[in-house]
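Handout, section 3.2

Students often ask what a structure token actually looks like in practice. Rather than define it abstractly, here is a full record for 3-ketosteroid 9alpha-monooxygenase subunit B. The first block is the sequence as you would receive it.
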Amino acid sequence: MATDSFLLPVREVVEETADARSIVFELPEDVRHAFQPKPGQFLTVAVPSDRDGLAARCYSLSSAPGDPLTVTVKRTVDGYASNWICDNLRPGDTLRVLPPSGIFTPADIDADFLLFAGGSGVTPIISIARTALRQGTGRIVVFYANRDERSVIFAEEWARLAAEHPDRLQVVHWLESVQGLPTAEQIKAFAADRLTYDAFVCGPAPFMKATVAVLKELEFPRARRHQEKFASLGGNPFGEVVRVEDAEAEVVDDGPKQPATLEIELDGIVTTYDDWDPGTPMLDFLEAKGVKAPYSCREGECSACAFRLLEGEVKMARNDVLEQEDLDDGIRLGCQSLPTTDTVRGTYS
């Protein structure tokens, strides 16, 4: 099944550092309705590939809602897509893009924010900070770790924002070349007097693991502790989706043999269906009903399709992104969820 993708012109390519580029897109009037991002979300981009036709990659938005749509891409070692973008993309080129997705976004823009970024993980963090400074009322504290001064993405922008909002924004730059890698005790000391803040963490896996462990130790509640992560997409969300029938059949053996009832809330509207086939993933079922439920990779490799289970249970054919605490909180992936009870209630809000 093909997805609703859009061919967007590139307005500008900005060199942020020697290894990072910001891609600013034009938004033609007839596609603006599909691009209404929340701060911290990402775009799924189709990068041309001679070998595979295209490589689908998720890149976080660095722009705030209302600004020109912008993603920021940093080269990764042996990373085909990031290197292709940094080496080849020019203004006037076009890229095929899916609408914004992701749940790494604040529930309350007026909250106080404790933002942890490592390297290119600053991309969704600055999107959240820009939005909160513009629309919110709370305080914002940023801990930004990098290898050295030359690696700092948005260095001038952070300085400008801090100068314009001295009472609300504090940015702490941590440079490995000067201070070494931040230790758990140092991160703990930084966060310890901000226990009422909403914490967001994005960066390399070791950095996120250490930071999240500290937040747990400090007993930040799950509702105020957010972690962003991506897995490399193995499939093609821009074309035909390959159904893994054997995996689905195995899951169906544990579930109802008759159609299940699904009550789902999306954009404040609750709809009930009583004919959810137990062998059809929830995302596919909703799409067949004409519901534009969120998704990106369709393979259980990102969290764009995540919803919260309110009643009943589902079993996921695949899950490469949700951790046990997410599952304990009722979070499930719509693209992989098959009913295992006669009734399932859930919400995307």
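Discussion prompt for tutorial groups: Residues 5 and 98 are 5 Å apart (CA to CA). How would you have guessed this from the sequence alone?
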